[in-house]
Amino acid sequence: MAYDIKDINLADKGRQRILWADKDMPVLAQIRKRFEEEKPFQGLKMSCCLHVTAETANLMRTLTAGGADVLLCASNPLSTQDDIAASLCRDFGVEVHAIRGEDNETYYKHLASAIAHNPNVTMDDGADLVSEILKKHPELYDRVLCSMEETTTGVIRLRAMEKDGVLKFPVIAVNDVQTKFMFDNRYGTGQSTLDGIIRATDVLLAGKTFVVAGYGWCGKGLASRARGMGANVVVTEVDNIKALEAVMDGFRVMPMLEAAKIADVICTVTGDIHVIREEHFNVMKNGCVVSNSGHFDVEIDLVALNKIASKIEENVKPNVNAYYLSDGRVVYVLAEGRLVNLACAEGHPASVMDMSFATQALASEYAVKNKGKLDKKVYVLPHEVEQQIAATKLESMNVSIDTLTEEQVSYLNSWETGT
């Protein structure tokens, strides 16, 4: 197997962590058991550009159980867990091309390996793999049956591709499925982002002013958890409706230029570029901690910060860089502006990723079953598949719910009965 990882000898620790995560992923385990029997991906090649974590490893196990020939590369240079990569190669037959801290050249070399795998199905976390195929590999346009996209950022890019007429195969926006975004983005990002910030800085959040840039599902989760730890939470937004929702949820809302003046900690979760810029750095308090939990490392304008810094001290703590400004203030940037929850912690809890990756697995099966029936568009998974995932998760939690009576079903499907 032509893998490219840090050290195969890390596999023992990685296997232990993969199996530990697996115990909190009962929905995916149930799907894996069925896939072992039915082999829905027999004879297919799959290339996956995802965060190489213990939870992702259990998704890879599920795909291979379904008969797929799977190659995994990293979707972020700082999110790879090297022991997990080693165990996937040694213990589970998955070819991995990912090394934590890989430079930009290596990152794109690993993407090239995923493309050279000649996939029939791709999985993306940010749409880098699809983008590379569309820009440079027309020979794969007819070969790829479908692609799955895991992130808000990636879906935004893919919808832009569809609008511009450059999308050459169907894509399922896994991120837009409720069993993904309502749980992964809100509960997963909310908890794991705080975990990363606290691990990196050892900051006490109680009493601090914590600024959340963006009030989408990730921002809602992060703001809620920060408030739960006693922080004074401020939200910044560019969308009137989301800003209004934040106000009605009890948060202060103001422009970033005002929020930066009072912030002790800032975290961006927008998916957009240069949310924190030079004018914001110029007014920050001494010692302000700046981080990002959006997908790419573009939300914090580090080029501008480098320009105005009189001195930069790297790794004052692991994953913490200090930028000293000419007036004596210091700004601390976590994880080089990359995903703080994965670079400084271990990403989402396994029980959350159980939902997301169950959705990924079933979306892949849906795409393969509907080969040739899907247009070159961005799709959302059918509602009945979401209901199936949610029902299985509730069952694993020993939670029961009511069912509609025949009378209630009839009432909901009729119009004759009024007040």
TrEMBL record:
Binds 1 NAD(+) per subunit. InterPro entries: Adenosylhomocyst_ase-like_sf, Adenosylhomocysteinase-like, Ado_hCys_hydrolase_NAD-bd, NAD(P)-bd_dom_sf, S-Ado-L-homoCys_hydrolase_CS. One of its GO terms (biological process) is S-adenosylmethionine cycle. Its EC number is 3.13.2.1. NAD(+) binds at residues 151-153, 185, 214-221, 237, 293-295, 341, 348. The keyword Hydrolase applies. Its cofactor is NAD(+). Its main location: cytoplasm. It is found in: Cytoplasm. Keywords: Cytoplasm, Hydrolase, NAD, One-carbon metabolism. GO terms for molecular function: adenosylhomocysteinase activity. PROSITE patterns: ADOHCYASE_2. It comes from the Bacteria. Belongs to the adenosylhomocysteinase family. This is Adenosylhomocysteinase. It comes from Mucispirillum schaedleri ASF457.
